[in-house]
């Protein structure tokens, strides 16, 4: 296994923040956004993004609701943040929600075991500024007037990261979902030895967003904001971030590269966007030794990821002894995903969720929260998240799903 991990990736280039319009949002798209996004807008309205940190305001569930819960999740679909034919579309979170309903993995079917936190506040500017520069935050907020006039603008020099008039407030709401789950999971961990796992089903994703600006479909570093919040508000000094997205989480890495108290570990496809994540990048200064990159060759498959977890990820966590584990859960390493080629099946994501759950229980009192990152084939994305939920519930994959995983490669059950 280890020889597979010794490939190196080239550094990417971080481009300055620029604004330019490219197209108008269609009337049909706006109508769809308004109808589906009413609930999320209601969550945002009336909440000040400059308010002082108040964890009680961001804890949306009473203590008695946390006693029986096995899963807590928040959804922030950012329906207004959308570009026609873009892989990071506003169909992603609704597809997951639909799958959870169809497969009977939501509150309607599981009762108190699976709870969705619906009324949560956006992150404050102070929350986000623990990771991102004030100039970037204020620049993005000001750019919303341009986006309102022109429909859609590019906010990154290389082009893949766009913004609409709702991007700023929807990105704050998505970051707020992670903060809310930190508060809820920490509160639950004080009530008993088996707190629920959290999952922030949010977009836009965050792990490419660097401290100075957006990058690679990502606007604010949702997981990085949550990590700093856990340290600042709850005194959880040591944070481990596991990133299994097919692309290197360069933004998260940059934010904590010299921090000895945040261990960032990324598995990703060698040579894929953004070209960062060399195996010899291990942190710097006081943070030397708390960054670990495991670039995997294309086509590595399920067995390689299982070996990486057993031989490297789990032992690293056991040595670091974090107070909380946060996970950048990208599902774009799936064999059906169009943007990369690690050839994972849904079984890999079930394995990762199950093993990370056990690792968190062993090391940090069960405190663990997943954050949605990539995953651009709606079928593989939604089924993989569903199997993550099954793993959280300590349930096996259904036999039909196991057969479908084998069929991807033409194997028998």
UniProtKB/TrEMBL annotation:
Pfam families: Hist_deacetyl. One of its GO terms (cellular component) is cytoplasm. InterPro entries: HDACs, His_deacetylse_dom, His_deacetylse_dom_sf, Ureohydrolase_dom_sf. Its cofactor is Zn(2+). One of its GO terms (molecular function) is histone deacetylase activity. Residues 86-390 form the Histone deacetylase domain. GO terms for biological process: epigenetic regulation of gene expression. PANTHER family: HISTONE DEACETYLASE 14, CHLOROPLASTIC, HISTONE DEACETYLASE HDAC1-RELATED. This is Histone deacetylase domain-containing protein.
